[in-house]
Amino acid sequence: MIINNKKIEEMLKSINKDSLSLKSRGNGIYLSDDQIKSLEKYNINYKNYSSVKSLIFALEECINEESLYGDVSELEKVEEFLCEYDYYNNTNK
Predict the structure, then answer these.
(1) pLDDT tens for each residue of 31-45
(2) Residue 62 phi, psi dihedral angles, 5° rounding
(3) In Å, how far are 3, 13, 16, 21, 84 from 9, measured between CA atoms?
(4) Is 26 helix (H, G, I), strand (E, B) or coil?
(5) Is residue 38 within 8 Å of 46, Cβ to Cβ?
(6) What's the start-to-end Cα distance of the chain, in Å?
(7) What is the pLDDT of residues 40-60, one digit of tens each?
(8) CA–CA separation, 19 vs 31, rounded Å?
(9) Which class for 35: exposed (0-12), middle (13-18), buried (19 or more C-beta within 10 A)?
(10) CA-to-CA distance for 90 and 93, rounded, in angstroms?
């Protein structure tokens, strides 16, 4: 199959799968390289947080402040991922 003059096989080879895979970053925080780049864009160092919940809280504060000045959709995606990850891994069901 061809999309935009490229074969799907070529498109899949060009995707950097390592940048999308989650890695343990300490303190129960799992992030991909792409998510870390998004955090760095807003000067947020995930290493400064002792847990996923403290990082989520910091992201919410930053989103509230930054949204007055511009687009924070990248940061919102990271925060949403962390909320879902925390819920599914740390909530008794």
Answers:
(1) 999 999 999 988 999
(2) -65, -40
(3) 11, 6, 14, 20, 31
(4) coil
(5) no
(6) 43
(7) 988 999 999 999 999 999 999
(8) 10
(9) buried
(10) 9
